[in-house]
């Protein structure tokens, strides 16, 4: 596949060609190589015929496409989502003479000849070459099932045993099972019907994260249980929610009854955390940047022969945010390897920035905006900061910005982009309560970091407490940026814009 298409993201992972959905099997090995597997249809531009595609990276931006890692074992049996671990101590017995053996655990989904769904079971395969090629275990399945909706095992290590979370999708249950060896699994507990249900629970993830104070110091740690629901998200289609709590090796106990969403827009689903990030450090994940409502229809399929990218890699930890309580923060994983030149760096009160970035080959930018000294008692309707990206050729525009006086002060609007006409392709997204610092004394500051990459915009508001992932499909490339600030008296905005190097050129 060529990565030259006008809609093809240049700093994001997308498959060489054909259809991709969930990230799978992610782990980082002892040499610092990140492995990304993914739900892949190598023969079609819509979902179906699922295999595990594979790619590797040493910096999470430059990816090397690898041969397909898992193939369907039989006709009408497909390899659905799952995870992978490095079995350093050879608990499984598959690796008598090495400490870099990889075990993948995944769902096999059987279909009958008439097309109806048969049982979904949990299975393992092992790799003696560090995750490039796998052998199916000869006594699969390792967790049998009588359900056709039982899937997406995510394995992790807890003190002295393996734990897997797996979804009983249409019963709204996440099952917790334990194992000494990845082969023999014992039921431990169920987490049932919490939060938003939608029509199915999918792709659970259980992960331990540091809790940091506003200065960044680690003050605690907590478990996150993330569940992806689909269909039936509040904005339509698919979305991911998460719960905070404690885990004792067999049971997850939520700390509160709050349902938190990972994204305020619609294009971040089934994110998976990498296995192997050292204990106590921030976690790292990537999501599927699409939504089942329209993933199989987006125009990249007909125009360029591929569908879906992942989100940028994200660094995750927890923090206490004023008024909204404890939340998972998203930071963009270190962009240094793809940072190119600084195109703009200015500070002002009221004013505008106009930038023509048509000469940036990748079409990709990193944008940072900080507004300080906002007197929240002096906010007027006209106190705004708008940042938009446009195509002078077609007049298309992607808008985002901040309404200082409003209830939902940050917004993104893709309604001015014309290359995809679909009833479910929601135009506008917004998020509330985006001042986390200083609002007690009436003087607030506000920040935004974003990447735009041809057909995907990801924005991280207020230190990453609010994240929005928005795909968009212009008929002509967006090549100009405009920022306009009308701030309350005394407020200052500083703007920093960098071009990004293509990781695929
Ligand atoms: C989530 C999902 C998973 C399943 C996979 C199949 O997007 O439906 O539950 O394993 O996709 O491709």
UniProtKB/TrEMBL annotation:
Q: Which keywords fit this entry according to its UniProt record? A: Glycosidase, Hydrolase
**What positions does the domain Glycosyl hydrolase family 32 N-terminal occupy?**
12-315
| UniProt domain Glycosyl hydrolase family 32 C-terminal: residue ranges | 405-498
One Pfam annotation reads: Glyco_hydro_32N
* Any one GO MF annotation of this record: sucrose alpha-glucosidase activity
Output the InterPro entries linked to this UniProt entry.
ConA-like_dom_sf, Glyco_hydro_32, Glyco_hydro_32_AS, Glyco_hydro_32_C, Glyco_hydro_32_N, Glyco_hydro_beta-prop_sf
Recorded hits in Gene3D superfamilies, A to Z, give: Exo-inulinase, domain 1, Glycosyl hydrolase domain, family 43
What the entry lists under PROSITE patterns is as follows: GLYCOSYL_HYDROL_F32
A GO BP term here is: sucrose catabolic process
Q: Which CDD domains match?
A: GH32_Inu-like
> Which PANTHER family does the protein's record reference?
EXOINULINASE INUD (AFU_ORTHOLOGUE AFUA_5G00480), INVERTASE-RELATED
Q: What is the recorded name of this protein?
A: Glycosyl hydrolase family 32 N-terminal domain-containing protein
């Amino acid at each position: 596949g060529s990565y030259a298409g006008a809609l093809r993201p240049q700093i994001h992972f997308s498959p060489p060609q054909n259809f991709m959905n969930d990230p799978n099997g992610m782990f980082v090995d002892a040499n610092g190589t990140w492995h990304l597997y993914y739900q892949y249809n190598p023969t079609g531009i819509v979902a179906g015929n699922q295999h595990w595609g594979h790619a590797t990276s040493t910096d999470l931006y430059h990816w090397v496409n690898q041969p397909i890692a898992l193939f369907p074992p039989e006709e009408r049996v497909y390899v659905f989502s799952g995870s992978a671990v490095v079995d350093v101590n050879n608990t499984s017995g598959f690796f008598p003479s090495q400490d870099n053996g990889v075990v993948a655990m995944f769902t096999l989904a059987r279909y009958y000849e008439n097309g109806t769904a048969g049982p979904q079971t949990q299975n393992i395969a092992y790799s003696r070459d560090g995750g490039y090629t796998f052998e199916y275990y000869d006594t699969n399945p390792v967790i049998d099932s009588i359900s056709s909706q039982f899937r997406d095992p995510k394995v992790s290590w807890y003190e002295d045993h393996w734990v897997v979370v797996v979804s009983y999708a249409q019963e709204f249950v996440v099952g917790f099972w334990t194992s000494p060896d990845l082969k023999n699994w014992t039921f431990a507990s169920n987490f049932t019907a919490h939060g938003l249900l939608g029509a199915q629970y999918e792709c659970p993830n259980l992960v331990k994260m540091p809790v940091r104070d506003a200065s960044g110091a680690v003050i605690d740690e907590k478990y996150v249980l993330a569940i992806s629901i689909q269909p039936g998200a509040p904005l339509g289609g698919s979305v991911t929610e998460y719960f905070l709590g404690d885990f004792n090796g067999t049971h997850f106990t939520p700390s509160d009854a709050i349902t938190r969403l990972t994204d305020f827009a619609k294009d971040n689903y089934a994110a998976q955390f990498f296995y192997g990030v050292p204990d106590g450090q921030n976690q790292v994940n990537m999501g599927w940047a699409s939504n089942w409502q329209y993933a199989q229809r987006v125009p990249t399929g007909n125009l360029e022969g591929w569908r879906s990218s992942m989100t940028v890699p994200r660094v995750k930890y927890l923090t206490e945010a004023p008024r909204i309580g404890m939340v998972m923060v998203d930071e963009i994983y270190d962009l240094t390897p793809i940072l190119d030149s600084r195109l703009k760096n200015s500070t002002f009160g009221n004013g505008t920035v106009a930038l023509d970035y048509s000469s940036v080959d990748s079409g990709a930018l990193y944008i940072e905006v900080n507004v300080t000294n906002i007197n929240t008692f002096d906010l007027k309707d006209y106190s705004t900061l708008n940042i938009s990206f446009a195509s002078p050729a077609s007049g298309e525009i992607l808008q985002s910005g901040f309404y200082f006086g409003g209830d939902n002060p940050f917004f993104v609007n893709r309604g001015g982009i014309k290359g995809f006409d679909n009833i479910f392709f929601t135009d506008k997204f917004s998020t509330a309560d985006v001042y986390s610092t200083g609002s007690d004394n009436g003087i607030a500051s506000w920040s935004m970091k974003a990447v735009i990459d041809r057909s995907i915009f990801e924005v991280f508001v207020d230190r990453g407490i609010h994240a929005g992932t928005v795909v968009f499909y212009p008929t002509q490339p967006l090549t100009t940026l405009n920022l306009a600030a009308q701030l309350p008296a005394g407020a200052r905005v500083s703007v920093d814009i960098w071009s990004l190097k293509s990781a695929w050129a």
